[in-house]
């Protein structure tokens, strides 16, 4: 009855959902998959380094992310983005599994010999076409993306605010006036909210503008930053959040969104600045709205993963430190070495903070700062310099009687570039990589450790990537880095205070925040790479990867035991999903799981063997006791464990007594059983009995007497420590529990600093009893978004201390 009422409420709420109305009015197609089908939402917080996230969590800037870690069992992990530490390289690895698809955000395209940057539609399309020639399977096939540089398999109209697609633009333009009015009316609150946020951000932008001008910043740049800032931090964030919620209502299998606000502010004011961290509060709110919409979805069972593509370094512009652009410095330093070398004045001074302006059609801003074409050489190979962030590349340098080492040394000593790398033979990708820094010549990988320093989190990985990058088809003849060990402050070759794209310790230190049951591949060395995220996402969407709960072990003395009535794997939302039950179990990593109300080959649950399916998903051994056998259909209880296990007994418990009230008892009676196994743990043999008692008091009393009798707990084979657990359908002060309490102890009442809590409608009917030789360290009854939906019961979990004993 309660389940039917809940389902009715959900259906009516869905009819009045703004997201459903938007999808209907725009004629957007919806998924026809079953509600238990997995779905995935990837939220990228652009430019947020792991240390800066920890700082934001510590000072309360991101309360929702902190809540995910405390209450929803999300785990914060390191992610290494690779070098170049820039968005297109990370997205290519995430979407296609291709590392270093580009050498930098801006580079010389070797096919056309023209300078290009990744926000240019033709450049983004060219890079993606190169990847597609390798017959890669794109991650976002059938899904949607927001603020992505690549379409990554999305269909036409499903890539929003992207260089290669217009998203819902054509659908909006073709809508009738009535449809547009309905869209406005159904989203009037969101529009008011967005308008208020724009007004607030505009006021803060003006304050920041005045402060920047007073501090000596360029007036025109500061003025141009105001609309860019408001557009990136508010408009795109709000539009993307609304769009993701619409796609969740449609049931798309995978959705990717990139939240740019922090990265934009960090480029302008630095990653540690107050304004950059202020933006995180709005991003945290957007993540919370997406997460809540995902967990209220009806068409799919969504999971939400949050990560960053890279970090940022607090940098100083090269032109600010040395009073001229890198192009001017190189022209002067190399004019005596390289014949007719002349780089146009001011080349490389364009600021990265203007990269995203084309999202709003403001190409006139680009014209104001676009560097002039480089000087052409014979053979139509122009001399070119790209310099964005802490990475610059010099192309097509003709050397006459001058060694490459001599050029690198001159760049370091006269142009004051911290590190220059080059291949000894530029025509061979396997040629050794040499370089120069302020202490003299270097060779990779032999000198990699001293170039990165002792404090770098990924020195070996960075050096390997830098070697590989020197052989990229679009890489320059000379790779110039604004940071290496010993630099007091990293340099950026653009006019910005925060930058990324190089090999610095912060820009190569991203993060991944995901549920604890999502595990990296077995080959992962303690951190994630974008390719690992891709593999985990594909496995999650297939629903085929075992969730190995024994991967993260507790101390040997501690045994984690769980009892869980799974309601036939049908949640309170009416969705039948053994995968969701497996996720609940895997998230808490128990050693022993006692499950009740499992269906095996029953028509009502699709003919699935739920016990076997859960055991396979969790990579655990299983023993099942059917309480009901109807031809091939069975229904009962099971024990799952990854520890050495031996089945001792399984059987049916007594039914209701004869006499008064027998007709009533028979009307509500179903057979009840128990399953008993022996577990080996820490040198002990533990007796574990799982049961599910009846609904009537008289029946339960008979069943308790049977469990305490010679067939079960008082059986000569029931030696050593004992644990009796399951769904007893009885309150703690009932006669049944009091009778059991005379022989065993209630784990919830024995746990230190724990208030006994209910597991079914706040009523305590699931119990875990244990013998006197076992002590309870901690009890947990997780009441999360996942556990509240997966079953009508909550799991009861106890950490039990088992002393080490010899056999």
From TrEMBL:
Keyword Nuclease: yes
Keyword Nuclease among UniProt keywords: yes
InterPro entries: Alkaline_phosphatase_core_sf (IPR017850), Endo/exonu/phosph_ase_sf (IPR036691), Endo/exonuclease/phosphatase (IPR005135), GPI-anchor_lipid_remodeler (IPR051916), Phosphodiest/P_Trfase (IPR002591)
Ranges where the Endonuclease/exonuclease/phosphatase domain occurs: 562-793
Keyword line: Endonuclease, Hydrolase, Nuclease
Molecular-function annotations in GO: endonuclease activity
Full protein name: Endonuclease/exonuclease/phosphatase family protein
Species, as recorded: Microbulbifer spongiae
């Amino acid at each position: 009855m309660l389940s039917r009422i809940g389902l009715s409420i959900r259906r009516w709420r869905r009819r009045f959902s703004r997201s459903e109305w938007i999808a209907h009015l725009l004629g957007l197609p919806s998924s026809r998959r079953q509600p238990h089908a997995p779905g995935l939402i990837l939220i990228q917080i652009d430019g947020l380094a792991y240390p800066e996230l920890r700082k934001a969590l510590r000072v309360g800037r991101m309360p929702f992310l902190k809540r995910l870690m405390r209450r929803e069992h999300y785990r914060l992990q390191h992610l290494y983005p690779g070098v170049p530490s820039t968005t297109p390289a990370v997205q290519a690895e995430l979407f296609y599994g291709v590392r270093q698809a580009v050498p930098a955000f801006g580079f010389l395209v070797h096919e056309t010999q023209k300078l290009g940057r990744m926000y240019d539609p033709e450049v983004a399309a060219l890079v993606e076409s190169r990847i597609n020639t390798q017959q890669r399977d794109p991650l976002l096939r059938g899904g949607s993306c927001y603020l992505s540089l690549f379409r990554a398999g999305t269909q036409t109209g499903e890539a929003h605010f992207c260089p290669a697609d217009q998203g819902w633009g054509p659908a909006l333009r073709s809508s009738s006036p009535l449809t547009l009015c309905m869209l406005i009316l159904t989203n009037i609150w969101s529009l008011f909210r967005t308008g208020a946020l724009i007004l607030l951000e505009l006021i803060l932008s003006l304050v920041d503008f005045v402060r920047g001008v007073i501090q000596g910043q360029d007036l025109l740049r500061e003025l141009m930053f105001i609309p860019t800032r408001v557009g990136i931090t508010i408009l795109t964030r709000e539009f993307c959040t609304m769009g993701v919620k619409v796609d969740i209502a449609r049931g798309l299998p995978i959705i990717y969104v990139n939240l740019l606000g922090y990265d934009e502010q960090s480029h302008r004011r630095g990653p540690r600045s107050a304004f950059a961290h202020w933006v995180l509060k709005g991003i945290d709110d957007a993540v919370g709205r997406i997460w809540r919409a995902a967990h209220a979805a009806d068409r799919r069972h969504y999971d939400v993963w949050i990560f960053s593509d890279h970090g940022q370094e607090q940098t100083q512009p090269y032109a600010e430190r040395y009073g001229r652009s890198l192009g001017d410095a190189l022209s002067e330093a190399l004019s005596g070495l390289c014949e007719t070398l002349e780089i146009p004045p001011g080349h490389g001074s364009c600021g990265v903070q203007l990269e995203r302006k084309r999202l709003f059609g403001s190409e006139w801003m680009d014209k104001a700062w676009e560097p002039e074409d480089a000087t052409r050489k014979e053979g139509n190979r122009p001399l070119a310099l790209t310099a964005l962030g802490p990475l610059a590349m010099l192309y097509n340098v003709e050397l006459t009687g001058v060694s490459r080492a001599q050029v690198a040394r001159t760049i370091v000593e006269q142009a004051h570039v911290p590190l220059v790398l080059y291949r000894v033979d530029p025509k061979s990708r396997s040629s050794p990589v040499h370089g120069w820094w302020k202490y003299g010549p270097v060779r990779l990988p032999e000198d990699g450790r001293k170039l990165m320093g002792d404090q770098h989190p990924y020195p070996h990985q960075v050096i390997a990537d830098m070697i590989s990058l020197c052989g990229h088809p679009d890489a320059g003849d000379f790779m110039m880095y604004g940071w290496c060990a010993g630099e007091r402050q990293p340099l950026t070759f653009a006019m910005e205070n925060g930058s990324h794209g190089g090999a610095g310790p912060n820009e190569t230190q991203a993060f991944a925040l995901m549920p604890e049951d999502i595990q990296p591949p077995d080959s992962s060395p303690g951190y994630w790479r974008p390719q690992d995220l891709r593999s985990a996402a594909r496995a999650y969407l297939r629903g085929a990867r075992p969730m190995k709960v024994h991967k993260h072990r507790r101390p040997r003395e501690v045994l984690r035991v769980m009892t869980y009535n799974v309601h036939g794997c049908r949640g309170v939302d009416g969705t039948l999903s053994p995968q969701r039950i497996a996720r609940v179990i895997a998230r808490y990593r128990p050693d022993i799981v006692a499950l009740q109300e499992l269906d095996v080959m029953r028509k009502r649950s699709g003919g699935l063997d739920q016990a076997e399916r859960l055991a396979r998903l969790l990579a655990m051994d299983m023993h099942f006791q059917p309480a009901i056998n109807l031809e091939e259909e069975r229904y009962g209880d099971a024990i799952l464990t990854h520890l050495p296990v031996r089945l001792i007994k399984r059987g049916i418990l007594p039914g209701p007594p004869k006499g008064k009230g027998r007709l009533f008892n028979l009307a509500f009676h179903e057979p009840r059983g128990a399953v008993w196994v022996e577990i080996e743990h820490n040198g002990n043999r533990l007796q574990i009995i799982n049961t599910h008692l009846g609904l009537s008091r008289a029946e339960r009393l008979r069943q308790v007497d049977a469990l305490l009798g010679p067939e079960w707990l008082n059986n000569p084979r029931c030696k050593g420590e004992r644990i009796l657990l399951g769904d007893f359908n009885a309150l703690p002060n009932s006669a049944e529990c009091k009778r059991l309490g005379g022989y065993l102890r209630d784990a919830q009442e024995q746990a230190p600093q724990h208030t006994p809590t209910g597991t079914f409608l706040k009523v305590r009917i699931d119990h875990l009893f244990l013998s006197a030789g076992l002590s309870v360290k901690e009890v947990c009854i997780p009441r999360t978004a996942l556990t509240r939906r997966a079953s009508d019961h909550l799991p009861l979990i106890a950490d039990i201390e088992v002393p080490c004993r010899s056999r």
